[in-house]
Amino acid sequence: MDAKFLEILVCPLCKGPLFYAKDAQELICKPDRLAFPIRDGIPMMLESEARELPADEEVGQ
């Protein structure tokens, strides 16, 4: 993902910043504990596409 592109993307729910998990190819919203997948280089920013992060799953920085 392009760093400049990541700077303008925000969580569609809370409008907060997203963390890019390169290994998992996901954009993570820490406050909402949601992981939005990236497919073929395109972020899927719909709530229905997001994966809920379990309480015990470590969220990157």
Automatic annotation (TrEMBL):
PANTHER family: PROTEIN PREY, MITOCHONDRIAL, ZGC:162634. InterPro entries: Trm112-like. It holds the Pfam family Trm112p. HAMAP family: UPF0434 (MF_01187). One of its GO terms (cellular component) is cytosol. This is UPF0434 protein E5K04_09665. In the C-terminal section; belongs to the UPF0434 family. Belongs to the UPF0434 family.
